[in-house]
Write a structure and sequence with these properties.
Layout (H helix, E strand, L loop, with lengths): L2 E5 L3 H13 L3 E5 L2 H10 L4 E4 L17
Parallel strand pairs: 1-2, 1-3
Length: 68
């Protein structure tokens, strides 16, 4: 089953996306925080990452991040 990391800070949108993906036989992992998403992406094996481009902590468009 394909695994998808869903990174979205809007709780209703995140839940709706995950529900739709699960209905289509995808395994979705919800995440609302950019830093947590980085750790999940590094430690997990995902086929796709759906990333909100306007997260409050890390915007998904660029910049640098140094894991602690």
């Amino acid at each position: 089953m394909p695994r998808i990391l869903v990174v979205e800070d809007d709780v209703f949108l995140r839940e709706a996306i995950c529900e739709l993906l699960n209905d289509e036989q995808y395994e979705s992992t919800p995440c609302m925080d950019g830093e947590v998403a980085i750790h999940l992406a590094i430690s997990g094996s995902y086929d796709l990452i759906l990333l909100d481009g306007l997260l409050p902590d890390l915007d998904g468009w660029g910049g640098s991040y140094t894991p602690s």
